[in-house]
Amino acid sequence: MRLSYSLCLPFVLTLLAGPATAQDFDVKAFFAKAAEGGRAGVAQKTKIVDAKPATSGEVVVTIIRSEGIETKSKPAESGDMVVRNRCPETGNEQYLVKAASFAKRYGTPQSEADADGWRAYRPNGVPMRYVILSASEGPFSFMAPWGEAMVAKPGDAIVQDPTNPTDTYRVAAAAFACTYDITEKPKAGS
To answer: How many H helices and E strands in the chain?
Structure first.
């Protein structure tokens, strides 16, 4: 397997200088280099999710089964929603979605609220660019768009909104496989 110098650079710098902090690793630059190398594909989140209004001030801790804590949200504000994936492989992880993004990403409810307030929503299937991390990439930590550190590991997907490159984040390998449909495979292997 041949790795390009630009994709190995974060690993070499970590060996020389010690582990980078989330503020030090530029995931957008990493994504741009990987895409330039033909490693980016396009996928859409299509699997039905459950969502309910967040309580003002609520902090949502995203826990991935067999991995532990993925991220912790900032305190919820009025209109924010707690989203729960329907993905037993990941433990049906939950995460916070800001009010401004929720309607764009999930649209209108597909069901009435259950006893706990959860309603079904169909993702709008916004096409996202993605790169799957190879066995030699990661783990590394970076700052998610919502201001929390995320750790990306080999096999995970780094996804990016093609209309907003600052919206770049990690999706755990199992969650990506469970909730996204690939619409365009990368031109080059990872």
So the answer is: 4, 13
